[in-house]
TrEMBL record:
Active site: E226, C260
Keywords for the protein's UniProt record, in alphabetical order: NAD, Oxidoreductase
The keyword NAD appears for this protein: yes
Keyword NAD included in the entry's annotation: yes
InterPro entries on file: Ald_DH/histidinol_DH (IPR016161), Ald_DH_C (IPR016163), Ald_DH_CS_CYS (IPR016160), Ald_DH_CS_GLU (IPR029510), Ald_DH_N (IPR016162), Aldehyde_DH_dom (IPR015590), Aldehyde_DH_NAD(P) (IPR012394)
Similarity-based family: Belongs to the aldehyde dehydrogenase family.
Pfam families in the record: Aldedh (PF00171)
Name of this protein: Aldehyde dehydrogenase
PROSITE patterns documented for this protein: ALDEHYDE_DEHYDR_CYS (PS00070), ALDEHYDE_DEHYDR_GLU (PS00687)
GO CC annotation: cytoplasm
Taxonomic source organism: Nocardiopsis aegyptia
One GO-annotated biological process of the protein: aldehyde metabolic process
Length: 468
């Protein structure tokens, strides 16, 4: 589908190296001038971004519809409204997050004061992906601005309508001296990565993450890498099958499975698989009707390349539900595959689409071993009523996030940092964690010159008493 842009302005084809160099220079000098540091500036930017999201909601919804077939409700809950909530929470707590924190001073240094002080890093580069192209560009921007940085946003070229909308709208609401959008794909990103930034915040896949980290080496720039991988969902026999199935279907088929924290596959313990598979099929019909292609609430695959990649995975098991697809419409039905083996093609890489394989494992030990033999996932889910199982999963597995009974929603809990570990990424953000990511914590020690209690420490080290 040719994307119909929400706004006619796109700079994608006219961004030159000189433009990029000039843009970065403008941002750097805005930061150097101190423009971004006052709390008042930060709050004003956040409020302006909030206004953009409210006033331009329709334009953004249309762009998301064009890029991914998202329904307005889904666009609101997972993207536009999500960022509004992030802004509101940040505005409410920012002053307290930024307040210097007193720490105690050891006796040997007393009397003196010590405190931890937040300072912005400088100019931040945010490179974002196509699957939640508003959320994943703007939620990091909220953190970068709240922490007092200048920021350059590079949206994904694979969500062209949203990219164009952001390039058009952000400069109309935000301080253009300190915030910029550069559109483009690999050439523009490559040029951007050659510039000096004070932090690079990348969301996307692990292959490009390696390129980003490699480029960061040159300027010793710290990076946050928000990546993906196969997030497992463990289901125990005691877990209510209907509720488990509905919650799995919701987490998996939102955005047609193109969610970094979507349950990638199910590990069904013991005898739980047959009933779970039946309930998954029922949940899909309940949510999207007999023909999900006609559901207003069901999205589309981003492009032909991903469509072809996904349809090639459909014969990795027995189709329990779905399986239908239409390339012209970039439609793949919500699909459940049963009887999938651990070495099936669908288990070789992150699925990132509406295909849910169910793998049977004999017991919890086998499920834990299965998870631990693979890359550390961005999220691990378990459906169980057993506190012992929850304890075991908490201590015996490693993942970016861990959620019992409900997939993907841990992202909506402001107090929980969002990030990966190992192959699923490094660093984290969302609300207070974004302040950690986009600030340096400066250690400040303050000792009066009036009374020289340090004389005991000076050479020559002779008789202590004499010098006291
Ligand atoms: P993508 O193709 O849109 O790429 C992401 C960004 O990287 C884009 O802005 C793109 O222009 C840029 N890019 C591509 N090649 C580049 C290069 N050679 N040099 C510099 N930049 C380059 O998105 P994607 O990577 O397909 O995104 C999907 C992946 O992202 C999945 O693995 C998913 O799990 C992960 N993801 C993670 C999160 C998270 O928050 N942890 C969120 C969403 C997606």
């Amino acid at each position: 589908t040719e994307a119909t842009s929400a706004s006619p302005t796109t700079t994608a084809d006219i961004v030159t190296t000189a433009d990029i160099v000039a843009t970065v220079a403008r941002l750097r000098s805005a930061f150097a001038d101190g423009r971004t540091k006052p709390l008042a500036w930060r709050r004003a930017q956040l409020r302006a971004l909030r206004r953009l999201l409210t006033e331009e909601r329709t334009a953004l919804e249309e762009a998301l519809r064009a890029d991914l077939g998202k329904s307005p409700v889904e666009s609101h809950t997972t993207e536009i409204g999500f960022v509004v909530n992030e802004i509101d929470h940040t505005l409410k707590h920012l002053a307290s997050w930024l307040r210097p924190q007193r720490v105690s001073v050891p006796m040997a240094l007393a009397p003196a004061k010590a405190r931890r002080v937040r300072e912005p890093l400088g100019t931040v580069l945010i490179i974002s992906p196509w699957n939640y192209p508003v959320n994943l560009a703007l939620a990091p921007l909220v953190g970068a601005l709240a922490a007092g940085n200048a920021a350059l946003v590079k949206p994904s070229e694979l969500a062209p309508a949203t990219s164009a909308a952001l390039a058009d709208l952000l400069p109309r609401y935000l301080d253009t001296e300190a915030v910029a959008v550069v559109e483009g794909g690999v050439p523009e990103s490559t040029t951007l990565l050659e510039q000096r930034f004070d932090h690079i915040f990348y969301t996307g896949n692990g292959a490009v993450a390696r390129i980003v980290m490699g480029a960061a080496v040159k300027h010793l720039t710290p990076v946050t890498l928000e990546l993906g991988g196969k997030s497992p969902a463990i289901v125990e026999p005691g877990a209510d099958p209907a509720t488990t199935a509905r919650r799995l279907a919701w987490g998996k088929f939102t955005n047609a499975g193109q969610t970094c924290v979507a349950p990638d596959y199910v590990l069904a313990i013991g005898e739980s698989a047959p009933e779970l598979e039946r309930e998954l099929a029922a949940a899909i019909t309940e949510m999207f009707g007999e023909d999900p292609a006609r559901s207003a609430d069901y999205g589309r695959i981003v492009n032909e390349r991903h469509f072809d990649r996904l349809t090639a995975l459909l014969d990795s098991g027995t189709v329990v539900a779905g399986g239908e697809h239409d390339r012209d419409d970039l439609y793949i039905a919500p699909t459940v595959l049963g009887g999938v083996s651990a070495d099936a093609p669908v288990m070789a890489e992150e699925i990132f689409g509406p295909i849910l394989p169910v793998i049977r494992v004999p017991d919890l030990d086998a499920a834990i071993a299965f998870v631990n033999e693979r890359d550390k996932p961005l999220a691990l889910y378990a459906f169980t009523e057993s506190e012992a199982t929850k304890r075991r999963l908490t201590t015996e597995t490693s993942s970016g996030g861990l959620a019992f009974g409900l997939p993907i929603a841990h992202l909506a809990v402001p107090g929980l940092p969002f990030g990966g570990v190992g192959e699923s990424g490094m660093g984290a953000y969302h609300s207070a964690a974004s302040i950690d990511t986009f600030s340096h914590t400066k250690s400040v020690l303050d000792k009066s010159l009036r009374l020289d209690t340090m004389r005991v420490a000076y050479a020559p080290i002779t008789d202590l008493k004499e010098r006291l």
